Structure formats: structure tokens, C-alpha cells
């Protein structure tokens, strides 16, 4: 057991190459305190998705250490790559298969998770009939049903309209605070930073700053190409 004060997400000196001549991540170290909502920032192609996948164990690291409080949930940019079952309820329960729970336990976990993301009335709704924001909330409900301590989200609002974007970021913040989860949310959208407890700034594969969201917002504006980060 980790003490309550220990960070729930830690990486030390993480490096990664997609090929021998192209280092993508260089000596990245970061820590996200337990129970907080942090964002991972940086311009397109700087290595955010690669770093998140290494943290999740979806990619094998070449060097460095990673330590995350289990279980870990992952939310992809495009929910159509994540949701595999035909209905909301079936998809959320699918992630529980390995836990060998009773029917009643599964039912209770699914109800609780859908309630947490305000989707309980859509339990039987086919996935194809959902909006993009609702699909992302189903993916998040999957992680909540598994009682995930840590949630990693890779630009979950990239395909959403501005209203659904803000709704989702508010909801994840609320979930983090009400359930004591720890979340790391990848974005290059500056307005989402207003909801973060802290942020990590990645530039060309290096962590160049971490801490106060407001300070990092300014630094991202300095390094980013204005059009991209303002969108
Ligand atoms: N599967 C892959 N194979 C080879 N190169 C990749 C792969 N995925 C990403 N890259 C390269 O790694 C770098 C970082 O990509 P990525 O982590 O997706 O950045 P970001 O998420 O910040 O936009 C980019 O140069 C990208 O082209
Ligand atoms: Mg990416």
C-alpha cells in the first residue's frame, strides 16, 4: 500500500525511440499527486500520446521507471476505437469479465458507473445512437466500473463540439474530486487548463515544466504555434 500522500502516477527518466535514429521521449520524469486532476500539454507530435501509452503499459519502455496506482483506466481520443459492445450496458460490463463477479455485482457496478457519468437512463441504448460526448462518458464509465484509481485520457475532447468539450472536462474533474481518483488528461486546448490542479509541459520529447496550470499556459503559448493551441 502506498501512503495517501504518495503520487498516484510517477515516471522517472523515461526514454523511448520509435526507431533507432528518432528519439521521441528523452529522460521524462513526472509525478501526479493522488486525488488530483492534471493535464499533459504540448504541441502536435511532441510525444504526448507516446508518453501516455508508456504510462499505461500499452507500449514497452526501453529505459526508466513507471509506477501507477492500479487499476488504471485509459480513454482514447476516438471512442469508436474503444467501445466494442453493441449497447451501453454491455460495453461497461465487458471490462469486468476478468473479475469473475456475480451477475448482481456486475449489475451494481455498471449502474454505479453509469450514474457517475449521468448515463444510467441510456443503459440499453445502442452505442451507434450516442453522441461523441456520450461515447466518451461510456468509456469513462468502463473505468469507473473497474474501480480504477488512475484515469489516463488522450485528448478525449478532440472530436467534441465546444459545449460537450467543457461538459466532459467538468465531469471528469467532478469524478476525480468525488471519488478520490487521479487523472492525467492530454490536451493542447488552453481553455481546458482552467479545470486542472496541475499540468506537465512536454516539448520535443522532454518534460520542460510541471506545476501551476496558469504558468504552463503561458509557456505553451510561447512555444506553441498560436493557431494550434488556441483552437
Ligand atoms: N506508431 C508509431 N510509429 C512510428 N512513429 C510514431 C508512431 N506514433 C507516433 N510516432 C511519432 O512519434 C512522435 C510523437 O508522436 P505522438 O506521441 O503521437 O505525439 P502527440 O500525441 O504529442 O501529438 C511523432 O513524431 C510521431 O510521428
Ligand atoms: Mg496524440
UniProtKB/TrEMBL annotation:
Residues 9-229 form the ABC transporter domain. Pfam families: ABC_tran (PF00005). It comes from the Bacteria. One of its GO terms (cellular component) is membrane. Keywords: ATP-binding, Nucleotide-binding, Transport. GO terms for molecular function: ATP binding; ATP hydrolysis activity; transmembrane transporter activity. The keyword Nucleotide-binding applies. This is Energy-coupling factor ABC transporter ATP-binding protein. The lineage of its organism: Bacteria, Bacillati, Cyanobacteriota, Cyanophyceae, Leptolyngbyales.
